UniProtKB/TrEMBL annotation:
This is Uncharacterized protein. It comes from Lysinibacillus agricola. It comes from the Bacteria.
Amino acid sequence: MSVNKSWNALSNEFVKCPVDNCGHIGTIITKTHCKLVHNMTREAVRKRYGMPKRVTKVKESEING
Ligand SMILES: [Zn+2]
């Protein structure tokens, strides 16, 4: 894993929500996800947890984006 600079995944990669114990993986970490799941704005998530982690080689069954 390496630190990403955006909330969107690059091609052939996914991003993983930076919030502890979340584990949400998708092609983008949406504002809606942050609000619904964490009750935080995406900016608040970034300040507290940082940017999403880029991940590769994820199994399709783990993608719930
Ligand atoms: Zn999350």
